[in-house]
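pasting alcohol dehydrogenase for the record, 376 residues
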Amino acid sequence: MKTKGAILWGVDQEWSVEEIEVGDPVSGEVQIRMETAGMCHSDHHIVTGATPMPGYPVMGGHEGAGVITKLGPNCPSDLAVGDHVILSFIPACGRCPSCVAGNMALCDLGAGLLMGQAISDGTYRIQARGENVIPMCLLGTFAPYMTVHHTSVVKIDPTIPFEVACLVGCGVPTGFGSSTHVAQVQPGETVVIAGIGGVGMSALQGAVLSGASKVVAIDPNPWKREQAQKFGATHTYESMAAAIMPLMDATEGRMAEKVILTMGEMHGDYVEEGLILTGKAGTLVVTAMGRMDAGEVKMNSFLLSMLQKTVKGCIFGGGNARQDAPRLLSLYKAGQLNLDDMVTRSYSLEEINQGYRDMLDGKNIRGIIRYTEADW
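structre below
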């Protein structure tokens, strides 16, 4: 079918909204009419080249929610036309060694996420200007329609608003799981969250719901620090350096049991700053993405060893989208997880570049694209 989508034709270019052609679903695939798409910082990493792509053009978008409109043959029996679904930015086959070991966020299918060829048959599902298009994470939610493999699809409660549902495809489980799955925050602990965007605010809520006694939010943006207090932060600071002495005073020198780095772009010197805030036998979780070609990390290895600290990487919150997405949405329905206030602004697809400018200017916790009948 012919529709439109936001295409990137090269590094440091703006998104171009233009006509695309989306293929029908083949074996194991579904076609989805998109309702909303989240505007995650990870898509901006493609723009800057921090996440290198094998070629162009690229279709953006890896957070989204919509309704199934077509099913290809050999799809799971629990999926049907009319189902409300979200897109998981990492597919989960359930059979590879990582999935079998319980690490579905590390599914072997993830090896091909940035290559563009469909899981089902190795061909392309999107064309623009007569060229094959690489969809971000084999999804491409910056279009009103998409054809994807069923391993990237998670069925959800149809009463959940699409505006918040799209967030549980990436940002919310990544942040929330950073606190709950990877850092394993325990009641009474002191937790530091550095970087208060969509992922950081979700990590903050995960720490609060896990029973942390002190939740420290760090961000240079005053408005984000103010918002963090509404979501449960007990202390806020403009930088990790500014938090050192107040945190030492507040914890009688023990510092934080858990520190989670969720800034929009990771730099190697942030690790040492985070470890200074991390107490004895504490854990530093690195969720933020850095440049793929950046290989230097700064840390004091003596203090790392002598104070028995741990540094952990984190992708997708270390969880399982099929289990975590319904649970997170259940918390939302119960009023325990605030997703409504995380959506700062809605944009049309044609306003996508303005949306990313607002993100970079620190005006949004999360911006979303809202599709309407005019798009379908």
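The mean pLDDT is 95.
The two ends are 11 Å apart (CA to CA).
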